[in-house]
Structure prediction request, 287 residues.
Amino acid sequence: MTTEEKYVAAVYLVVFIVLLAYVFIIALKLQRLERELAELAELALRKKEEPEQKAVAVG
Amino acid sequence: MSTWSRNNRLPALATLALTLMAAAIALIFFYAPLDEDGLNQKIFYFHVPIAFTAYACFGWGGWKALRHLWKGDEDADLESYVAIHLGVIFGVLTLVTGSIWARYRWGHWWVWSEDQLVLFLVLFLFYCAYFMLRYSLPPGPQRANLSAVYALFGVALIPVSILAIRLSQRFIHPIAFDEGGPNMAGSQFFTFCVAVLAMFAVAATLYHLELAGKRLDIRLRELREALQ
Prediction:
């Protein structure tokens, strides 16, 4: 590989690595949001069950 | 906007970006002829479209900032922030790809006496400072308004940065366009145009992807507050 080819390859490699890193960071964020959504769904279910349990206890 | 286009915008944009990028790379390496700059000229097909994309992102961020201040559109603040964030990423790429090109062509990674390099760095650092300003304030209307005013000021630096390339005296930064039109063969210009469109499509995809993530984050936070 000539020096010129190395410089050209370096430019294209840098661009793809930076764009891939960006997509990777976004993917990590989406994973975190998915976890949070699961937690919230669980919280919502618990909140929904709570009044029903209370109603049974009173009845 | 229709539900179909809202739901399918991101996959459609990603497909377009992938297709255009594949076409651009094929054209760059198998179609566009070499000129006196040799193989090193292939860097131009990525470096210049990346720089144009950075300017476009900063310009779009400024437009959204103006919409926020003018119409009081709250969503425009988030859109302005995401556009500037992407502009900074493309700014890093402009600086890195330009430095690699300069190292081979000029024998230097960076030349402080060159106006066009320093002015692009000033523009880049100006927008880096945007994040310092934004995160030094608590979320709310004050932060959104100050960020919007700052983003608008930055737009004034874009024409100065572009003009500096033409005013450059010492090293000759290649000028792709002058009064007579593009300074390249028809096949090179066609390849360049496809590369510009590909980079814009990539930026648009990343913009909508990040925006979707940020909006989801905000809605989840609101939901958490409502449930607790």
In short: The CA atoms of residues 18 and 24 of chain A lie 10 Å apart. The two ends of chain A are 83 Å apart (CA to CA). The interface with chain B takes residues 2-5, 7-8, 10-12, 14-15, 18-19, 22-23, 26, 29-30, 33, 36-37, 40, 43-44, 47 of chain A (CB under 8 Å). Helices of chain A lie at 3-58.
